[in-house]
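Box 3.1 A note on notation
Throughout this textbook, protein chains are presented in two layers. The first layer is the amino acid sequence; the second is a token string describing backbone geometry. Keep the layers aligned when reading.
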Amino acid sequence: MAVQIISTQNDKLVFQVEIPLSGNIGVVEDKIQKYCNELGNTATEHLLKNLDTDGSPIMVGNKSFSSKGTTRKMYHTPYGDVSIERHVYQSSQGGKLYCPLDVNGRILNGATPKYARML
């Protein structure tokens, strides 16, 4: 793998990227783009996970919500799609599910804010 996380420090990721520069320039440019996208997807995946809850009960307005567990969701980013497990919540009265990650991340129809602006 050409893109590796070297360390995570508080709210930072440190990457190492190895890009072979030999060969046809068109091929090398494709590799550069591929590794930039891989780095972007990995960083965005970590960012999204940090916006999720730990599954503890939460209050939304004056209603208490409990986690129904995690479900996998595909998110669209400028670097490609990432699929992550995130918590979904529901009140004891039932009704619509609530996803803190989608609210905290300002996700619009599965798209991150930057990707939504690009569209």
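Residues 26 and 118 are 25 Å apart (CA to CA). The radius of gyration is 18 Å.
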